[in-house]
Each structure stands twice: as C-alpha cells, then as structure tokens.
Amino acid sequence: MGSLPIYTDKKGNLETLLSQKVAILGYGAHGRAHALNLRDSGVAVQIGLYAGSPSAAVAQKDGFGVFSLKQCVQDCAVLALLLPDEIHGDIYKQEIAPHIKPGQTLIFAHGFSVCFGQVSAPEGVGLVLVSPKSTGYALRENYKEGRGVFALMGVEQDNSHKNAKEIALSYACALGCGRVGILETTFKDETHCDLFGEQAVLCGGVESLLTHAFNTLVEAGYPKEVAYFECVQELKVIADLIYTKGLVGMLEHISNTAEYGGLESGDEIIDPAIKERMQGVLNKIQDGSFARRFLEEKEQGYPKIHQNRQAVRARLLEQTGAHLRQYLFR
C-alpha cells in the first residue's frame, strides 16, 4: 500500500483563498480558531450564525461581522460549515441548499454529514474536507506561536471552477496546517477512521479500561486516591511519550519494570479476540447503523448522552478525580 501525499505551505497557494470571500458558519471552539487564523493570514472572513445564537456576541467582540446563514451563502464563495455534525442536515436543507450556486465550495472539518448522506450538494458545488487534528484551542495557540497542527484534506466533489482542491489546500495553509503537513485522504476514510478511533480507543475503549482498572484496585482494598493516580492520572505521561516519541520511544523512556510488566500482562488484559469485537464496531460504522442511531439520539434530545454523563459523574472514579484535581490544578 502506497503512502498518501502530504502537502506543506510550498504546495498551498494562499492567493487562492485571498481572492475569495469566506464565511465561517458557526463560532464554537473550532469556528473561532478557524476564523481568527484565517483573518491573521489575510483572508476576508465573516461569521454566519442562526438567529439568537449566543456566539454572536463573542464573534462581534473578536471584531467579526456577524450575518445570517442565508446572507453568508448568498455573499461568499467559500463556506466552512463548523456547526455540530448532527445538525448539518437540517441547516443545509433550511439555510444553505435554497441559496447555494455552482462555483461555491463547502468546507467540512469532519466528513460525517457528507459520508452519511445528510448533505448532498448539486453538481458544480465543491465539497471539501479540511480537518485539523487538534482541538480548536490547540489550533489557535500553535498558529500564534508560529507553529501548526497536522490536517487531513480531501475532495468529495469539485466545484464548477475545478479548483476545489486548491481552495482546500489554501484554507488549510491559512489555518497554519501547512507549517506541519496536510495529508490528502477521502471523506469516507476520514469519517470511518475518526469514528472508529473514538469508539474503540479514545472515548470508548480508554474510558472502559480506566474504569475497570480503578475498580479492580479499589475492590481489592487499595486506597482510591492511589488507584486513581496509578490507573488514570498517569495515562497522560504515557500518552505524551507515545505522542512525541512513538511506541518504541515510549518503551525506551519508561522503567524496565514497567516495560516488562506490560510485556507479560498486556495480552492477558486485551487479548487477540478483541479484534473481532473491534471489527463489529467498525461494521456498524461502515453500514451506517451507528450514524442512524446517533441521529435518532439527536432527534430525541440526547437522552442516552445525558444519562451516561450523570452515571459517570456518580462513579467513585470521577468523584475521586474531582477531589484530587482541587489540589493538582489550584
């Protein structure tokens, strides 16, 4: 399997975007970071928000003009849809589709709504992905410090000017991502891999692993505070080592005791059979059933999400962590 192309500032011409009017639709953590970075790169940016949005005051305080979503679609050639994934379909149908024209380009930070059919633009309207691999806060802070964050970029549909890819690259470079690297991929691959990583590892697998490990020690009679530090708090140390040095670098920087213990016990905790269960998770992403359930959850007012947050808040692990964080982050 060949390597995917990676672009830097040398391949992304900012002039492509500097000649366009750009609207950021949404002004949450990502929308704000995108807008500020684009403006600091010389791009003309305006903000599009729905009526009554509490973000309007923040955007205006930051010095941006705030307009209706409809007005932005009518005025701007490039539109970055940075509202929550699950409302893209409704926003697109109600505010964007009636006014969008061939030649315009829609930018997405995540491919969910396009990949699962919530947004389907007419021929001649560009659909591109520019997905910085960081929080909005980190995207902004890295930009201000002269650095950048890695981004994924892809084109689902070209615009009538046949320059959707150039717009995507220019946009990513204006965010500061070209200082590091912009990896070309597809909407499908980004969406499936992103959802799988969240569910199998980052937000599902890790949470479950931490909870069971903490409970095992506490139920065996060990102090909950010590269990929290050893099973939860120290995760950041290992994650940071993997982030900066890779798996081998992490192994070379931990104690021999820790490395040998992991070697002897790792497969006992997470055995090869987990791959079959992970494949089941991936299957539900690939066949669209996860997306359907998530959109149903949204329509019902997120009852499972709210119930889960209450349940997690009530766990001894979370209560112990809340107590210790009063000392850790004073």
TrEMBL record:
Instruction: Give binding positions for NADP(+).
Output: 53, 55, 136
Metal-binding as a keyword?
Answer: yes
Q: Which family does it belong to?
A: Belongs to the ketol-acid reductoisomerase family.
> Which residues take part in binding Mg(2+) 1?
194, 198
- Which keywords accompany this UniProt record? Amino-acid biosynthesis, Branched-chain amino acid biosynthesis, Isomerase, Magnesium, Metal-binding, NADP, Oxidoreductase
Question: What Gene3D superfamilies is this protein classified in?
Answer: 6.10.240.10, NAD(P)-binding Rossmann-like Domain (3.40.50.720)
Question: What EC number(s) would the UniProt record show?
Answer: 1.1.1.86
Active-site residues per Swiss-Prot or TrEMBL entry: 110
Which positions fall inside the KARI N-terminal Rossmann domain? Answer: 4-185
- The gene it comes from is ilvC
What is this protein identified as?
Ketol-acid reductoisomerase (NADP(+))
Q: What does this protein do?
A: Involved in the biosynthesis of branched-chain amino acids (BCAA). Catalyzes an alkyl-migration followed by a ketol-acid reduction of (S)-2-acetolactate (S2AL) to yield (R)-2,3-dihydroxy-isovalerate. In the isomerase reaction, S2AL is rearranged via a Mg-dependent methyl migration to produce 3-hydroxy-3-methyl-2-ketobutyrate (HMKB). In the reductase reaction, this 2-ketoacid undergoes a metal-dependent reduction by NADPH to yield (R)-2,3-dihydroxy-isovalerate.
In which pathway is this protein known to take part? Amino-acid biosynthesis; L-valine biosynthesis; L-valine from pyruvate: step 2/4; Amino-acid biosynthesis; L-isoleucine biosynthesis; L-isoleucine from 2-oxobutanoate: step 2/4
Extract one GO BP annotation from the record.
L-valine biosynthetic process
Q: Does the keyword Thylakoid apply?
A: no
**UniProt catalytic activity:** (2R,3R)-2,3-dihydroxy-3-methylpentanoate + NADP(+) = (S)-2-ethyl-2-hydroxy-3-oxobutanoate + NADPH + H(+); (2R)-2,3-dihydroxy-3-methylbutanoate + NADP(+) = (2S)-2-acetolactate + NADPH + H(+)
User: SUPFAM superfamilies of this UniProt entry?
Assistant: 6-phosphogluconate dehydrogenase C-terminal domain-like, NAD(P)-binding Rossmann-fold domains
Looking up NCBIfam families in the UniProt record yields: ilvC (TIGR00465), PRK05479.1 (NF004017)
Pfam families, sorted: KARI_C, KARI_N
